[in-house]
Amino acid sequence: MRWMRFTLPLLLLTSPLAFGQKQYTEGACLLLQHQIVQFSNQPNSHNYQSAKREFDNHCQNPIPAPVKDLVLTNIPAKPITVGSVKNTVTTKPVNANVAVKAATPPPVKPAPSAQPKPADVLKGLFAPVLALLGSMLAMLLLLALVVGLLAYVAGRYAARIKGALGEWALHKVLAKELPSSYQHYRNLVIPTATGDFTEVDHLVLSPFGIFVIEVKNYRGWIFGGEKQPKWTVQRFRSKHQFMNPLHQNYKHTEAVKQLLGLTGKDGDSVHSIVAFSLRAQFKFQIPANVKYTDLVGDYINRFTQPCFSDDQLRQFSARLNMAKAGKKVLRKLHKQQFNY
């Protein structure tokens, strides 16, 4: 028994399991050995060294493959003779269909779907119609808002818009029919002799005179007279009075004379013109200087007698340009005088 005390520790020390190396199966070791043989002509390659290292470490005591009984299917039974007795061992083949049926769970019947409620059916039918009606209602509300806003703006600024349209129409006529040497000014704000300000719609500076034009963009019948302080415009049953534009423009012409320093005979070269749109119909004998917008250019071109020198025209132009440059400030002062 003394030799066993030395042999057993020696076997434990020399066994690969004593070093904690896991052993591969016989099949894995055969694959490693095949790789070692395949790369034996390349001993320095990674494949050879890796296979050799794995084989040396894990195939010293390979794990044998488990033994399983071989089951043969679809093979007829063979008689086995033992001595003089002939026995027949029959191995029934495994029916694959039966195995599949046994493994397949029975089909699950789907749960019956719930019947839709009448309210849900009606909701599904009328949902597109309701959506369309909602979008149409939103568009109508938006349209009504836009129309209301336009009506508000038109009602509040109707007179100003009409006046601007009339002045623009006259501007196109003058730019088309007057010579290019004539100087044309629009919406000039100039001081008067009393210290306040007045606004001139149009002013034309030429060697043949200075033309101060007041624009009226009224529509309907016009009643009045050259000496009457008020004129009347009537359209259907609606009528209202407005200041005699000849008297109104007289203030403008006097302010222009003061600004340019014109007195005496030179002051007679400042002409007053009142321009009405073609929508107006006069019901009285109008003066010669009251014209329709389209005829203002022809009326100015009738003046062909020179009355100003070139030096005077340059001085007038410089003063009018100064008034034009300060138009924003002067217009603000002009508006303030109506707030007091």
Automatic annotation (TrEMBL):
Pfam family, any one: NERD
Superkingdom of the source species: Bacteria
Keyword terms: Membrane, Signal, Transmembrane, Transmembrane helix
Keyword Signal recorded: yes
InterPro entries recorded: NERD
Keyword Transmembrane helix: yes
Domain NERD: 162-279
Transmembrane segments: 125-153
Signal peptide: 1-20
Protein name: Nuclease-related domain-containing protein
Organism: Rheinheimera pacifica
